[in-house]
Every structure is written in C-alpha cells, then in structure tokens.
Prior knowledge:
2 copies of one chain form a homodimer. Chain A is an alpha/beta fold. The longest helix of chain A is centred in the middle third of the chain and has 22 residues, at 194-215. The radius of gyration of chain A is 28 Å and the shape is globular.
Amino acid sequence: xxxxxxxxxxxxAEATASVTxxxxxxxxxxxxxxxxxAVEQVCQNIAYEQTVEVPPALAxxxxxxxxxxxxxxxxxxxxxxxxxxxxxxxxxxxLAGGQLPQLLNLLFGNTSLQKNVSxxxxxxxxxxxxxxxxxQFGVEGLRRLLGxxxxxxxxxxxxxxxxxxxxxxxxxxxxxxxxxxxVKDDHNLHDATFGAFQERIARCHEGVCRANAQTGRNTxxxxxxxxxxxxxxxxxxxxxxxxxxxxxxxxxIAGLDVIRSLAERYSTLVMAHPTFxxxxxxxxxxxIETGLLLGKLFRLIGADISIFPNYGGRFSFSQxxxxxxxxxxxxxxxxxxxxxxxxxxxxxxxNLPQMSRQYGADxxxxxxxxxxxxxxxxxxxxxxxxxxxESQFSTRLVEPxxxxxxxxxxxxxxxxxxxxSPVVLTHLSHSPATGAWEGRPIAAYKACQSxxxxxxxxxxxxxxxxxxxxFDLRYFAIAPGGFxxxxxxxxxHAVICVRGQGTLAVGDEIVQxxxxxxxxxxxxxxxxxxxxxxxxFGFFCxxxxxxxxxxxx
Amino acid sequence: xxxxxxxxxxxxAEATASVTxxxxxxxxxxxxxxxxxAVEQVCQNIAYEQTVEVPPALAxxxxxxxxxxxxxxxxxxxxxxxxxxxxxxxxxxxLAGGQLPQLLNLLFGNTSLQKNVSxxxxxxxxxxxxxxxxxQFGVEGLRRLLGxxxxxxxxxxxxxxxxxxxxxxxxxxxxxxxxxxxVKDDHNLHDATFGAFQERIARCHEGVCRANAQTGRNTxxxxxxxxxxxxxxxxxxxxxxxxxxxxxxxxxIAGLDVIRSLAERYSTLVMAHPTFxxxxxxxxxxxIETGLLLGKLFRLIGADISIFPNYGGRFSFSQxxxxxxxxxxxxxxxxxxxxxxxxxxxxxxxNLPQMSRQYGADxxxxxxxxxxxxxxxxxxxxxxxxxxxESQFSTRLVEPxxxxxxxxxxxxxxxxxxxxSPVVLTHLSHSPATGAWEGRPIAAYKACQSxxxxxxxxxxxxxxxxxxxxFDLRYFAIAPGGFxxxxxxxxxHAVICVRGQGTLAVGDEIVQxxxxxxxxxxxxxxxxxxxxxxxxFGFFCxxxxxxxxxxxx
Lengths: 553, 553
C-alpha cells in the first residue's frame, strides 16, 4: 500500500496502472434529509467533497484520483423520518493519515457546511485506532486511584466566581471530608494571572489533601485549564507538580487536537467539559450526533470522563442523547479503555435511585447546586448523597492507589520559579577560588531517599531565573567517589565535561568523559554519572526547561 | 478595578462592601426563539449561566457574586420573525481576562447547548481588542507583498489528492505564469510524512518562484497546515525557511486559539478555511451568526483572509451570509486591520463582473474547477480570468515587496535536518590536537554578506543530529582579532567561556568573559562576541532548537 498521497514522478506511470488497492475503510454514517430522488446525488457529492473535491468526470478519468473518492456502501430510509436517509460512505483510512485533524476534515470538513446532513456515527478500523491512546485512566484506572468499586462516583464543582480562595478551598475540603470522590473547578472559574492560579489551586488541593489525611480516602481535585494554548502546559505542569492527578478541559474551546496532544503526553486524568460544543449537537438535522461527539470523539482524544447536561436538567438534552453518550463511552473501541459518563444537572437526593438505574455503577454524578443547597453543611450533604447512592449498589472501598503522588523531587525554589520576570544581559563571573558563580547560590542536589546520590553539588545557572530559554544550564561537581542518582526520565541531557574526568553510564554502556568531551543521554534511558577518579569531576549539564520528573530505574 | 476574580481572604470583607464598580462591558447579542412571556426568563438564565452558574437567590445575597452576573441591556422582538427576539447582554470584560478561550466560553459556552438561542453579534471594548493582534498583513499588507492595487485578487487551489508532486508544482507554476495572485494547497491535500511535505511544498514553491522570476510579479504559494498540534510549528517553520510567506489553516479543526497563537507569534500570512465550522453556522436558530463566526472571529484570531462558500455555489450560504462575512472583515474593529473576504465556488468567467460589483476591489476570488476546466492551459485561463476582473477596475501594479524573502541565512545542511531519526547515547570525544569533536564536522559560520564576521569556526555538537532536545549545543572558536556578526534575534543565547578570553557586547553593555564564565543574551538585543586578545577564544553557545533567523541590527 502506497502511503504517499501525492505520487512521485518516477512512480506515476506505474501507479496509474496498478492502483485501486484494497482499502482499509473508515466508514462514516450520515443522516440526510432530502427528496428520495435526490439522495443518491447528495451522497455522491459527499463522497467527492470529502476527498478529491473535483468534478466526477475529472476523477473518473484518472485511477490515481478515483481511488481516493469515498465509496457509497448503502443508503437506507430512516423509519418514521419523512425524507430521512441514512447513508454509509467509506473512505480509505490513509486519507486520515492516523491524525485527528485530517480525520475530522475527512469525516465532516466541508460537508459540515451543507444543510440537512449530519454525521451520526463512524466505524473506525483498528489501523486508525492504534494511533490514538484514548483514556489513560478510564473506568478501571480512576477506580484504582480512588479505591472505590461497585458504585457510581460523586463529583461536585467549585463555584461561583466571586468567592474568595479560602471559601473555595473550604468547599473542596468539606466535600472531601464528606467522602465525595471528585471536586472540579467550575469551567467559568479562572484567574487573572498565573500567580493567582497557583495560589488558588494550591489552596484548594491542600484543602482536599488535609481532608484525605483525615478520612484515609483519596478525593481528587481537578483544576480548570482554560487558558491560552501557549500557557496550557505551564498550567498543567504546575498542577501536576503539586501532586494534582487530573484537570478539567474544554475540548471545543481549546481544540480537540490540543486536548488529544495533552492527554497523550502527560500523566493526567482528563475530565472533558462540553462548553461551546452546542453548535455541533443541538440541532439533529445538522452537526454531529451527540453520542458520537461527546462519547466516541471525546474518548478518542483521551477523555477519561465526559461531562454532559443530564436529561431533565436545565438543558435540552434528551434521555436518548444521554444514553447514546454513555453507550459510546463504554462500547468496545479497539484498544481504547472505557471512559466515564458524567451527567450533570437534574439530579437530586430523591431521584438518585432512578439515576443509578439509568446509568449503572460506572458513572459519575456531577452535582452542584442540589448538593450545596441540601443542608447547611456540605460535608453532611455529601455524606447523605453518597449514602443514598450506596444504598443502590454493593460498594467496595479499598486502599486508594496514591503511588504517583509520592514520586519525589523537591519542588522548585521560589527563585527558580518559572514565574520570574524576564531578565536582560546576565554575566555570571566564575570564581576559581570558590568554584561558584556570582549571584547563583549552590543548590542541594535532589534530596530524595528513593533516588540516592553521593557528594554532588549543583549550581543552577541559566533558565530558572527569568531567562527566556527553552533549556536550563546547570553545573555539577562530583567529589571523588561520588555519584549522581541512578534514574531515568523522558527529557534528555547534554553534558560537557570541563573539569577532571568522570564516568557516564547509560543502560549497559559506559563512557569515560575527559575535559571538553560532550555526551548526550537519550530519553528514558537509566543513567548515572560517577567520579571514580581521585580528582574533582565537573561538568555542565543542559536540560529542557520544561521537563518531567526523574523516576527510579 | 480588582483584576482577580477569586477575592483574597484579607480583602473579602472590604470587597463585599465596595464592589459593583463600573464595568467595561463586552456586549453579546443573542437571538432567541420562545414565547413572548418566556423571553425575560430565558435572558436571565443566559446572564447567570454564562457567568456565575448558580441560582439567582444565591448570587443576589452576595455582592461579590452578583457583580459578575450578566446585565440584560435590552430585549426586542425581531420584525418578521414570529416568537423571535434579540437580546443584548453585557458582561464585565474582566471575565474574559483578555484571553480567547475564556472569551468564547463567556459569550457562548454552555448557552451553545441550549436550543433556540444563537449568538448573532458581539461588541468588543477597546480594552479587550488591545489583547489581540488581529491580521498581521490584512488588506494593505497583502497588497504590498503582491504589488497589486485597485482590483480583487485571483486565487486558486492545488488539487486533487492523487496528483504527483511534479503535476501539482506544474499547476502552481502555470497559475503564477498566468499572473494569478495566490495559489494554495487544497485543504484536503496532506502528506504521509514530514519528509513528503517538505518535498511537496519545496517543489510547488519553487514552481511559483521560477514563474515569478519570469514575470517579475510575486505570486504567493500557501501550503496547507493540517497536522497534529505538536507538529504545527515544525511544518510552519519549514515553510517559512523556504521563503514561503503564508499558510492555509483550518481554525475549527486546529482550534481557534491555536491559530490565534500561531498568527501572533510568526511572521506569516494566514488564510483561514471554514472546514468543520458548519456546526456553528448552518442552522440560524442555533450556533453563531455566519459573519460573526467567519468574519469577526476569524479576524480577531489573526486571519488575513477568510475563505467561505460563495452564494450560488454548491453550498447553501446565502448572499446575505456572504455580505455579513465581508462586512465583519472590513468594518472598523479597534486597532485591528481589515481582512480579505475570499468567496469560493460559484464563480465563472461570465459572472466575474457581477461578483466584482458584489464584493468590490478588496476581495479574493478563489476559483478552482472553473479555472482548471476553462481551457487546456491554466496559464491562459488565469490570464483570461484576470483580464476579465481587470476590466471592471483600475488596476495598478507596482514593485512587489519581497524584502522579507531575501533575509539571509544559509539553510540547514542535510545532516542538520530536524528530520533526522532519534539517536541514543552519543559520546563526542574532544581532540585537543585538532580542537574538534569526533563525528562532528566543523561548520562554516553563517556565510552571509549582510551580517559580516571574521575568523569564526562553528562546531555543531548536539541538537541537529536527531537528539530529542529543545536546545542546540554548539562550540565557537574565534581567532585573535576575530568577531561574530553583529546581529539580533528573538531567541536567546547562553554562553560558556572555556578557552582564553573574549568580549561580549550586548547593546551598550560590554562584559569580559574568562574561562568558566557564563553569560545570557536576552531576546532582540543586538550583540557580538569578539576576541580582542592574542590567544584563541573558545566558548560553548546554547540556543533554542526552534529559533528565528538572525537579523541585522
């Protein structure tokens, strides 16, 4: 199978002769409203519009073009819908290139602009699904984090805008004390500056952690990541650096592919909010079927949890919409884990049994106002709601899996904050007498029991002090007999030996470094620097400014 | 005015007493379909839903909360629309924080999920608009690039999928020979790998450049940037490195904020495609008014050109839709430049005069099929179409402004391609005898007349050879009396002196570097390294892997 869509010169003659190979199809299901005698033409238009976008005569004349045109598999009337048809059109999965942007464009790009055509489902081949990680935690992973089995989870939102940080933190604390499972920021809650975000989420997280210390449970706090795309990762990394395990994201605001990318690259629980999605799913004659949109697509981009307006609440979602979302989140989908439906709104203490029957155990009940207004104490209300839920299920509580949160690295010092203001020309004069640089304190090397080291001194030089670099420059001195911790991480090292000599071990490879030698340590390779000589060993080490924490081998 | 939304403890008592300051409003105009006696309640629901999202009683009891609730300015029946109302609701602009994601969420986040409510316009205050760069080239800037004044521009698309690279390049070449203004990739055209993209766009661009050399004009080629978000900047930078001046983007696929960020940070013409936008703008009872969506919002995120389906073509956009888009692109909007409407489809040689009257001179006619099928020669067809357009206007051609394209830096060598495969442990042993590193050729320092230098040797060590780093590590040796070019750029330098001594000049500041000294050169500061001693001066220099080109002071 030829993976390039634009054929090379040399190949083109051959290609013309040998094309139309058996394709692996992505099959889109469209719902069309039109006169019965027009439906075939509408389908043909879609098959061309979504692929080659030229008049049929031009495509028919050239096999290299014709082979990419969508294939109409079937057209069926929709029972009970006058002038309603369901058409299945298959595309060669190579047209999506295993990539979300091109996939969305292929399924519904220009056709989204046609009246009376909606995208109601898609069958993805394994070849395509393999390119997507999907939910990282999913149903099972989140249950392990929480240690909660057998019942739906209870979640709430911190709001409204205008409350003080201590008030928001107190709400989070109370909810966790009451045994609630997840407390997220309201999606309208945001901060004027990164500093304000840092303070707010640190206090809210701390409120939850204090409660967890009392209850022995592992209630999770998920802050709202609604910030410009340039800042998303900075905010996320800060949250993760506090030990926060997940975030609230808004894929239709941030971009579906942005969330896919974040979810793929970070170890974070992803709770997806449907804000701004309405354009696609409110009018059934147009757009994308609700379950496909907030179920299958959210799961494809890595959402562990999909929030949606529950039927009977203040939005116009029907029971069928909610069922469809739930089904798409749970139905087998290649290697992708099942994700959580999180109906929001329309849930009260009295209809929890009904909601429990409706959604079953693997759902998250997101309850805001009804919980807050139930009694004077959020802790007590949370307990009552939980008790009511538990009365419908056989709940099993086990030790939460908090392993990740105990991963060790000392947080950055205040001076080394990424929040420092930009600096201008910096000259760090080196003192041969002290071995240090003017204006740069000597930092203790990672003080962490599980990654032991000996006789290592670290000097942070460039990067953490407001310099606008994508990298940090540090200097390490290892005394004779000393060594750095044996560790691995996704970020890489570039090392420049400038003093004495040392040993660099990377996996099974060992190299000797002498003055002016340069070395590169690749991602996720266990490594260690040792001084096996009798003289001091000194080297510069350059790392990416934004980097993951070291892990034990 | 208090810029933090969550008030601090210390302030909260005071805040309660002193709030409800005069706000600077963002005013949203919603169109609502409901019974006349329900419309006030619907408006109140919107005002709360989009801001505090709690029951009115709770907000009314606390001034700190109440002050953020949307203000209903007016509700008017829409003439001729039964049960149709237009409501203006104002929000404190601080709720958007000057940021696009929060702005979209504020205007239409959850309310997008309500039936029978659409967002029909928005009045942005200057305070908000100041945060947006808007079109970087706009109408005037693109005219200067092209040297074409007084008439609409003619654009075409390279397609279909399946053509070979030389065939696509030949189409681009012919169109440019015919005097066409802009040739873009079809939005369905993409490549299986970065290497394939590199080859394809280099050949297409080269086809256009060869034609430009013949015609003396400056036809522009805009490649399609439909790739995963992690790769967007790599693709864009490659295009810009070829001297390509602009790109085709799809904001509803990539994310509106992603395109805003790209447009803000790169010197590139942005042509925005409406693919996948249909959910928002096909059904007038829902979603976002077409002109607001593809006109005002596209302009806000920095689109220089907005493509939309022309009326009378194969899509269902009305003449009124096209007029609304055009109006929103041109009407004064704070400090934002006017942008180009680019109607596509429904244009033929015979209705060009009518289209010219409809859109006026400041429009781009995007003509694909009709141009290709007009005659056997795309060059001749392009000439004929242009002649027809020019017959309606007083065209003035001047020297195109190609200044940017002649900016000098030698392209990266093949070995230094970012396309190299990942490497594992690298050990570069330094030879004191040769002063070089094993496996790393000595590179010539920038061979560019306009940025002169003397006696500088560059060794590229880490970064360009497949290492997964966010930075590059190089070593420079400057002989006595030598100097690097006096230059500036947005990226920064970290310098480590390891041999001899040298002078670093940054603006008016001069520092002397001796062995082991470290220096940082901030962005856009003119700088130079000089060896004023009698011994060789050697230093490591670390730069961001992704970086801009040096500019003359």
